[in-house]
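Chain A, query sequence.
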Amino acid sequence: MAKRKRSRGATLERVPVSDPPVRPGLVGPRRRVPGHIERPPYARTGEPGPSAASSVRSAAEIQAMRRAGQMAAEVLLFAGKLVAPGVTTDSIDAEVHEEIVRRGAYPSPLNYRGYPKSVCTSINEVICHGIPDSRALADGDIVNIDVTVFLDGVHGDTSTTFEVGEVDEHSRLLVRETRTAMYLGIAAVKDGAPVNAIGRAIESHARTHRLGVVREFIGHGVGTEFHSGLQIPHYYERNHNTPLATGMTFTIEPMLTLGSPDLYMWDDQWTAVTADQRRSAQFEHTLLCLDYGAEILTRTPAGEGAAEVFSGD
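Chain A, predicted structure.
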């Protein structure tokens, strides 16, 4: 059987690599969470254990997830206002951490499988799970900030890729079309639809714009567990045909690249980077599957989300 070729993304000879490339900075100590704040089970040990939760949420859990999702959306809007040339990702982590605990929630990434910080900050060619450190944002960067809060026993998970200062044309296209791909994936959600309808919508759009689709990291069930057993690939494969059902909650979070989606991991075992050092963008919402479509849980009570508020369009 012929081996399928992986999409090479945009026309590479015209797409610049990141110069200089992102390199690890100094990572500060883990931040403290006040004792009165409810913690997820892994907060002390770092180990979430095997997934045991149902993919379908109860009515009470859905109400809690609306509250957690709205808070996550508000915190991500807060984070977006911090993005500027000269600002370190560690200072963003510090301010977002304080904002989350001020609101009485726990920053879900903190000590999840040992992750040392309260948010993820992924710059330029970093695909996901970048650890906030001493590196300052530079004019022309793009940075994804991934915020998840644990509130009332459930998680709300959302992210946006922000433009820092004046960004080049390729990066603007990447950010814009990754956001569009996420919403096309969301539009495919309804009771009874197969999971691969989401991946088909996202991958078709990415190919139209000659963007790569990262396969190693996918959307996931979310609720009482940060990552439950439900898997949401952002690419199409026939056997990914699990039917969606009313009451399921999960993330859609495509990661698209200007070049090849091939990647490698830094020694920290968290930071995933494109192998060709071309840029990557990501957008994420937490969704509730309904009979007729999807409810986006990670928006403010006024219906706002960072993806639109900080859009350069």
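The chain has five helices and 15 strands. The first strand starts at residue 106 and ends at 107.
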